[in-house]
Amino acid sequence: MSGWRVPRRVLSRLPLRLKRAVLFREAHGRWPGRTTFTDKIDWRVVHDRRPLIGRLGDKLAMKDYATAVCPGLPVPAVLWTGDDVADLAEVDLPDRWVLKPNHGTMRVHVGTGRPDVAELRRVTVGWLDEPLYRTRGEWVYSQARRTLLVEEFLGAAEPPADFKFLVFGGRVELVQVDTGRFGDHRRRLYTPDWTPVDVAEAVAPGPVTAPPAGLPRMLEVAATLGAAFDFIRVDLYDVDGEVWFGELTPYPGGGLDAFDPALDARLGALWQLPPRSAVRAGEQGVG
């Protein structure tokens, strides 16, 4: 935002707290505090080492958590895990499937039919690395098992819309709907009663639509899955009126994505951070 930037070779050597402060200033043009939503994501990245938070960089652990907390909630089936995509040649996969790393984000490959191992090797170069802690200090990813996984594809021809519920202390406060994630990406925000919320952000706004058939169930599931957290984003899908689990996201945008200032302040006021003493147990990886 300000054009101020520290050389990456210098940044990589900084202690976590200073690294995060520099990254935050580069992203937002100011130093982090403890007031806004993005401030508090940054605080969590630096300080919160509770075991429950530590599980949230691991997609397989998230699925186990969702199943334990919401019995009967459909969770995309895991069809394979491993660290060598050549093994997929021996797996009986459906017509469509999804490959992703267990320990990262924003890396997704939608496959069709029998896998092309050579193509998958090209696609997944670097996927078993763990850059989000090393480069951005996002601690939860350092706690996850480094492996690849294939899960079932949800929906028909196109991936279903992402419904992301921002939950504070078990209460849903905002719904983010993302469509066209692999093409014309659009985003629309709503209050839980489906009133549109207009904000200024980098992603183009999506159209205002009627609430999905599964909204009441999604709100119930999001509140249940979020009850143990001071804040969590619960990602769900509505597939033909049936609610499916997606992910639990502890660091939306890593606290570094552009964020509407008014919404940043409003959501920050809703998030009651735990006391420092409550998050110190098992502290590790903070240097």
What is this structure's SSE topology?
Elements: H1 8-11, H2 16-28, H3 37-47, H4 51-54, H5 59-69, E1 78-82, E2 96-101, E3 109-112, H6 117-123, H7 131-136, E4 148-152, E5 162-168, E6 171-179, E7 186-190, E8 196-197, H8 215-226, E9 231-239, E10 242-249, H9 261-270
Antiparallel strand pairs: 1-4, 2-3, 2-4, 5-6, 5-9, 6-7, 7-8, 9-10
Helix pairs in contact: 3-9
Widest sheet, order of strands: 8-7-6-5-9-10
Class computed from helices, strands and strand pairing: alpha+beta
Number of domains: 2
Name the average pLDDT: 91
Please report which band the strand proportion falls in: under 5%, 5-15%, 15-25%, 25-35%, 35-45% or over 45%: 15-25%
Could you explain how this protein is built, in words?
There is one protein chain. This protein is α+β, with helices and mostly antiparallel strands. The protein folds into two domains: 8-73 and 160-276, D-amino Acid Aminotransferase, Chain A, domain 1; 77-153, Dna Ligase, domain 1, CATH 3.30.1490. The chain contains nine helices and ten strands. The strands form two sheets. The protein has a six-stranded antiparallel beta sheet. Strands 1-4-2-3 form a four-stranded antiparallel beta sheet, with no helix packed on it. The longest helix has 13 residues, at 16-28. The protein is globular, with a radius of gyration of 19 Å. It starts with 7 loop residues before the first helix and ends in a 17-residue tail after the last helix. Mean pLDDT is 91; it is low at 282-287.
